[in-house]
Amino acid sequence: MRIRDHRADDSPQIDLVPMIDVILVLIIFFVVTTTFDARSVIKLELPRASGEQTEATAPLIVLVNAEGRYFVDDREVLRTDIGSLKATIAEVAGTDRDRPVMLRADARTPYQAVVTVYDALGQLGFNRVMSATAPPAGEGSGAVP
């Protein structure tokens, strides 16, 4: 009786399951760490006003949410005092004080938070400050892009 050796028939195989697991972990990592547009993260309800939109070149955007938290371009100001706000604005804007500033404050924002932004911008020497508003309810969708 001849005993057949089955080891010779086995061909090497590459197991793809660990590679697929690693790729899925990388995809999840990149999705979680992706930076999204600040406008989609921060929900603002802008006050209403009628008027024409003006197009400015690359304004410095200062956001104030309903809780009175400040955001300068894509950076959040960690404390709500004027010193922290001035330091963040100066760091983001650099030495360009002629750059226009767009203030986007939620309609439910405490008035003191808006006054603090104007005060900080004035102390830093910015004189071209615009306030973002939404068109009246009958004229548009109610949000400024």
UniProtKB/TrEMBL annotation:
Pfam families, alphabetized: ExbD
Keywords assigned: Cell membrane, Membrane, Protein transport, Transmembrane, Transmembrane helix, Transport
Molecular function terms from GO: transmembrane transporter activity
Membrane topology label: Single-pass membrane protein; Single-pass type II membrane protein
A GO CC term assigned to this protein in UniProt: plasma membrane
Family: Belongs to the ExbD/TolR family.
Name the record gives this protein: Biopolymer transporter
Species assigned in the record: Lysobacter arseniciresistens ZS79
